[in-house]
Amino acid sequence: MILILKPNTERDGTEFSQLLEFLSNLRNIRFRTHDEHGAQQVLTEVYLIGDTASLSLDEMESLPCVERVVRISEEYRVLGRHRDTVRPTHFEYNGVRFGQDNLNVFAGLCAVDIPGNVETVMKALKAHGQQCTRMGAYKPRTSPYSFQGHGKECLPFVFELAGKYDIKVIAMEVTHENHVEEIHAALHQTGHPTGVLLQIGTRNTQNFELLKFVGRQREFPVLLKRGFGITLEESLNAAEYLASEGNSRVIFGLRGMKTNMGDPHRNFVDFAHVPVVKRLTRMPVCIDPSHSVGSRDYAPDGLLDVFHVTAQGVIAGANMVLVDFHPEPGKALVDGPQALRMHELPLFLEDIQIAREAYEKRVETAARHAAQWAETA
Ligand code: PEP
Ligand code: MN
Predict the structure, then answer these.
(1) What CATH number corresponds to the domain at position 353?
(2) Which terminal Cβ of the chain has fewer Cβ within 10 Å, N or C?
(3) Range of the domain at 337
(4) Is 157 found in the same domain as 203?
């Protein structure tokens, strides 16, 4: 059960202590409080764990400070929807809105190489009205002999160039808690020219200690990639690790599943789960067509498979697209074969726009029919 408190409830007020006093006296029930930081207000939620079936909703609703009570299922306590339509399904970070109702594109380098390529990408993004990008500094690689990313050395020039081209959010994978500290330090050193969305990659989806660390910090929101060889439920529980430690600004990323049933694609495209994740949780959902498809093959209609699967995810309501671009894919140090070329950026963005408008039209059409059915029922 969740008690949603009145906005901006004072933690040191008498009413709040009366509430805590009452809750401490409930038998077989533990509780913990959790703050949701919105743009204008702080919403405090109190999670009751244990024998909550015996509690009366009316009684709990009449307690001091309590605005609303939601009965929840055991799963995904913080991030789950629990059939509630009022708790937020969006958050803001560095002036950018991330929600289940909007869409952001994060086109950029899988791995940062030279400053010139970072600048070429960011300049093109700005020219096409984009304010987000992806830039990998820490790369988890299959072979220990492959390029591992430039790490903290590249952060200052990446952040400074982002500031120069008004990029507000950079998705950047971290594989160790030190990386979060290095990002924090480099942002501080460069005067916070941009923001960072910490990415947890598919190989670390169940690295619980990393999840707990990243969940305890509140500075950066998180993009959690789905584990490529575990169930959806296991990956959603991994997201809940972040939230249960206090950071509920989490985006859930679909990136394809590892199985040869998806051949010739690098992974089996799983974007059919976009609406499923939106139904089960309050997280915005990201799709990664580059790591799903893994190549630059064209369909006979002249569109790349990467474009087709992006459109499939967007027309199903995806909220973020994470996609690899490179000025010279042949020279990319990581994942060149799947990178889109810079001249393809305007077409890619236009194609996404077509799919997004189709999605919005589908939602409106469904609502119109539902209203008609209600009238005639
Ligand atoms: C990436 O986005 O660069 C990446 C390594 O993704 P994943 O963790 O999904 O393989
Ligand atoms: Mn990659």
Answers:
(1) 3.20.20.70
(2) C
(3) 90-364
(4) yes
pTM of the full structure: 0.94
Ligand 1 atom at minimal distance to the Cα of residue 111: 3
Q: Residues lining ligand 1, CB < 6 A? A: 110, 136, 173, 201-202, 225, 255, 288, 291
Q: Are 329 and 339 in contact, with CB atoms under 8 Å apart? A: yes
| Total length of the chain | 377
- 377, part of any domain: no
* Positions of E strands within 79-159: 90-93, 96-99, 104-109, 132-135
Q: Report the separation in Å between the CA atom of 311 and the middle of ligand 2, taken as the mean of its atom positions.
A: 20
- pLDDT tens for 42-52 read 889 999 988 89
Whole-angstrom CA distances from 120 to 68, 116, 321, 322, 349 are 50, 6, 20, 18, 17
Does residue 229 form part of some domain?
Answer: yes
* 145: Cβ contacts below 8 Å, ≥ 6 apart: none
Whether 369 maps to a domain, the answer reads no
Residues 274 and 195 in one domain: yes
The pLDDT tens digits of the residues spanning 243-263 come to 999 999 999 999 999 999 999
